[in-house]
Specification:
Distance between the termini: 39 Å
Radius of gyration: 19 Å
Number of helices: 3
Helix content: 10-25%
Order of helices and strands: EEEEEEEHEEEEHH
Largest sheet: 8 strands, mixed
Number of strands: 11
């Protein structure tokens, strides 16, 4: 397959919790010609495993809440209802990372992992790629505080009836894009589980 882009240069311009790269490239236009040089800053390419934990016997979904710094510019609750997600370690398979993250963030062991979809969450500004899964788990009563102390995580975990989560979704209470995708997929496919 012929490449439809040419990288002129790529350099790291910031390296911290995230990486930022400056890329100068040309891409093939629909008319067959090449574009002028385009300069963009791209967030480094984290590979992420994301999991929607679901108990098929109790018909419950496990959601987490944690503080999200990206919400500070909005006048809203900075603790979002989300599904599980984490960066895949170097050399780790997405399925292994998904099971590991599910246990670290919820305390629930994965009984069965079902691939949902892989996708680019923000291809205009990031090289990240997300691997999204449904995890069959055993839910629990009450709530838990989970997360790794080494990663400064403080995660509130709770099981909800799937009908409760559907109401939250319809009322606009789910504000995390990854969680919206997973939950919309779930409610479109719930009869298969």
């Amino acid at each position: 397959m012929k490449s439809n882009f040419k990288i002129i240069s790529k350099k790291n311009i910031y390296s911290g919790f995230f990486e930022m790269n400056e890329v100068i490239l040309k891409y093939k236009k629909y008319n067959g010609s090449w574009s002028k040089e385009v300069k963009r800053e791209l967030f480094g390419g984290s590979q992420v495993a994301a999991v929607l934990p679901y108990d098929p016997i109790k018909k419950e979904i496990v959601l987490i809440q944690q503080f999200r710094p990206g919400t500070i510019s909005k006048n809203l609750n900075n603790y979002l209802n989300e599904i599980v997600a984490g960066i895949i370690d170097h050399g780790e398979d997405p399925e292994v990372a998904a099971s590991r993250e599910c246990y670290e963030e919820t305390g629930c062991e994965v009984n069965k992992l079902i691939p949902i979809q892989g996708y680019f969450p923000a291809p205009g500004s990031s090289e990240s790629y997300y691997h999204l899964f449904l995890a069959e788990i055993e839910s629990f009563e009450g709530d838990r505080i989970m997360g790794l102390e080494t990663e400064n995580e403080d995660i509130l975990v709770k099981s909800y009836k799937s009908s409760q989560v559907e109401k939250m979704l319809k009322k606009g209470e789910i504000l995390n894009g990854l969680s919206l995708i997973a939950l919309q997929w779930f409610f479109l496919n719930i009869n298969k589980f």
